[in-house]
Amino acid sequence: MVDIEELKKEKTIKELLEFGILNIDKSSGPTSFNISDYVRKKLNLRKTSHFGTLDPKVTGVLPIGLNRGCKLTGFFLGEDKEYVGIMRFHKEVNQKEVEEIIKKKFLGEITQLPPLKSRVKRQERQREIKEFVILEQETTDFLFRVVCQGGTYIRKLIDDLGKEMNISAHMLELRRTRAGIFLEDDKKYPSIKLYDFKKAVEEYKNGEEKLLREMIIPGEIVSKLHKTFEIKSGEKKRLLTGKPLYRKDLVKEEKLEKEEIICIFDKNEFVGIYKVINGEDILAKPDFVFQIIG
Fold first, then answer.
1. Residues 37, 55, 80, 287: which is the catalytic one?
2. Is residue 55 among the annotated active site residues?
3. Is 156's pLDDT higher than 60?
4. 258: number of CA atoms within 13 Å, CB side?
């Protein structure tokens, strides 16, 4: 496993901005795109990209890729998400009855039809609900926590729960507390309020990079999601041109499943992300190669 903190210490602030991630705490009101674009403009970057849309009224963890960090979006989108929210039933209902319906119908693999206003094609799809817990009840309002597969619509989950109970229900509030490895209260990289981000950028522009540097997560954090391998000395230059990864390129090989995603490093330097094909000589082909700019 690559030591992300040691790697971060070796990088300049410009290198972090070129291939980094910010764990932003989205406020209620703006869209996820608005927040991403705000970060781009404040830092004067070429591009930014958020790792999974939150509705305008939903708050919480919104990881944003910076410059080439945007290339990592697809590798994080499917990761589990965790939410805390409040749902309201339109007439009085017993908490135990709600919990029983959740246990029978809304845990494990469920079928969802995306809402009318969603950007994806409206066709049924399976999503896994790993945890759906009622934390507190106050009359017809229920505080809940959900841990689920990425791409699950929580608003639709609540609506479907109400329909299953023959009682209308809707979501009052929702906050995302985790998006994959990005946490609201992470000890090293907690989610950042926009006010604090703005202050860090102002200090950076005045020649003080400490606050901003502390906030940026190196893009190499993607190696926490997938197996990591080191290549032999002298192979990096060839791989950075987009060539496939051969078994003989690795310092140490192990058995891998076809379609498995792996991260490749040259000692502590990130080379790219590869998809295993398990050919006779070719082990994997590149999904994203960290080519040197300029």
1. 55
2. yes
3. yes
4. 4
CA dist., res. 240 & res. 170, Å (int): 50
Residues of 260-294 as b/e, b for ≥16 C-beta within 10 angstroms? ebbbbbbeeebbbbbebeeeeeebbebebbbeeee
CA 103 to chain centre: 27
Q: What is the pLDDT of residues 103-150, one digit of tens each?
A: 999 999 999 987 766 665 667 889 999 999 999 999 999 999 999 999
Whether residues 198 and 70 fall in one domain: yes
To the nearest 10 degrees (0 to 180), the angle between helices 95-105 and 154-164 is 110
Domain shared by 245 and 214, yes or no: no
Any domain includes 65:
yes
- Cβ proximity of 219 and 263 under 8 Å: no
Q: What percent of the chain has pLDDT over 90?
A: 87
Domains of the chain: total: 3
> pLDDT value at position 1?
66
**pTM of the predicted model, to two decimals?**
0.93
- 139 and 193 fall within a common domain: no
Q: What is the domain range of residue 192?
A: 4-77+181-220
Do 212 and 240 sit in the same domain of this protein?
Answer: no
Amino acid 294: pLDDT: 53
b/e burial code for range 170-207 (CB count within 10 A of at least 16 → b): ebeebbbbbbbbbbbeeeebebbebeebeebbeebeee
- Using pLDDT thresholds of 50, 70 and 90, give the confidence band for residue 293: low
Q: If you count them, how many residues does the chain have?
A: 294
